[in-house]
Write a structure and sequence with these properties.
384 residues; mainly beta; four-stranded antiparallel β-sheet
Length: 384
């Protein structure tokens, strides 16, 4: 029985929503089996084929999956669910600035190095500059995706599949683009990124290219087509993060498919059925991601053909991965970070945190691998 809630350079690593018409938008936060969940197998001793050093750690407050660290301008931007937002020096982990907004945070952080933006649980978009609140505006719907700050604008994707642009200095609304809504949407991070002069956003099972100046649609590329006999089976939202290498953008449609799109032309390069529910990452040769049971998979970026897969991390609650030169980093619900070989998935080493689940994907800050745990710990390692 299903239970659902309604509606760069990486060389060092080589070694409550509105009613739309008569249909209410619902939030799907999780679907799971009522039977006992399978347990992960015991892990063997750490292989330790790669040296790493914990170089700094920090604390930002309890987090969740929609609060992934973000790196921009030599800083690591982090947020805690209770309202803390901080910019940390990427080299030392020391505070550049820290601000408590006084209200819980639902999604963030987006930043361009100077301006940061988050979305609060009461649907307010808040912009921060140099550690001080610059402006805040109320959104018409909830958001689970970090805002994108680029070109002195702040772009927001709300759960009703509306994309809105705001002036980064004043908060004035510049334009809004809405697409056909489905009865269910995911309370999970979506796709929102800039590719050249195009704003690329995940809408339902499509990657869509928008003109960032006025929101007009330039192209739409389907990664998955909605099918099934009920609303849950037809749910194929694009989930973040995505993997971008130049004009190649590869993404996952929730529990349906993985595919790559040429964002310069808006054409689908390939799609392949896949059952995962978290985003993907990759390099110029491979795309990496995990299936819903934790089987970790690599696909050829050019063709979508499977390259390899491993089963030893099954049922560990994996995050989306991060490709780092010759290794791939993926974290789990036990607070471990697994560094595996990009060539065959063999273990290179394993990193420990504070033991609480890591829900958001790892990020790269210069030559440091950074993760944030549910208990609010932020940890950074460098290769030795």
């Amino acid at each position: 029985m299903l239970t659902c809630t309604p509606r760069s350079s990486m060389a060092p690593w080589r070694r409550a929503l509105p009613v739309i018409g008569l249909v209410a938008v619902a939030l799907l936060s999780a679907c799971g089996s009522s039977s006992k969940k399978p347990q992960p197998a015991e892990l063997p001793a750490v292989a330790a084929l790669m040296g790493t050093q914990l170089v700094w750690s920090a604390q930002v407050g309890e987090g969740h999956a929609s609060l992934a660290p973000l790196v921009a301008g030599g800083r690591v931007f982090v947020a805690g669910g209770a309202g803390n937002v901080a910019a940390l020096d990427a080299a030392t982990g020391k505070d550049v600035w820290r601000l408590n907004l006084g209200t819980p945070i639902a999604a963030g952080v987006g930043a361009d190095g100077q301006t940061a933006a988050v979305v609060t649980r009461n649907n307010q978009l808040v912009a921060i500059a140099d550690g001080a609140e610059r402006w805040r505006v109320r959104l018409p719907a909830r958001s689970f995706t970090a805002p994108l700050v680029a070109g002195e604008r702040v772009f927001v994707l709300t759960a009703d599949r509306v994309v809105t642009a705001f002036d980064g200095k004043t908060g004035a609304r510049l334009w809004s683009q809405s697409r056909p809504a489905e009865p269910l949407v995911l309370s999970q991070t979506g796709a929102l990124l800039a590719v050249g002069d195009t704003l690329v956003v995940g809408l339902a099972g499509r990657l869509t290219g928008l003109n960032p100046d006025n929101g007009s649609v330039r192209w739409e590329a389907p990664v998955a087509t909605s099918r099934g006999t009920n609303e849950v089976e037809r749910l194929v939202d694009i989930v973040g993060p995505v993997s971008r290498i130049r004009n190649s953008v590869c993404a996952r449609a929730y529990s349906a498919a993985v595919g790559c799109v040429d964002a310069s032309r808006g054409t689908v390069v390939w799609t392949r059925a896949a059952q995962g529910t978290t985003g993907v990452h990759g390099d110029d040769r491979l795309v990496f991601g995990s299936e819903s049971d934790g089987r970790f998979q690599a696909w050829q970026r050019a063709t979508g053909e499977p390259a390899w897969s491993i089963d030893r991390l099954k049922y560990r609650g994996l995050t989306a991965p991060l490709a780092l030169g010759r290794v791939v980093a993926v974290a789990d619900s036990r607070g471990l970070v697994h560094l595996i070989s990009r060539e065959d998935g063999s273990e290179m080493t394993r990193l420990t945190t504070d033991g609480s689940p890591i829900l958001a994907p790892p990020v790269l800050a210069g030559d440091a691998l950074v993760v944030q745990t549910r208990n609010g710990g932020v940890f950074a390692w460098r290769p030795q």
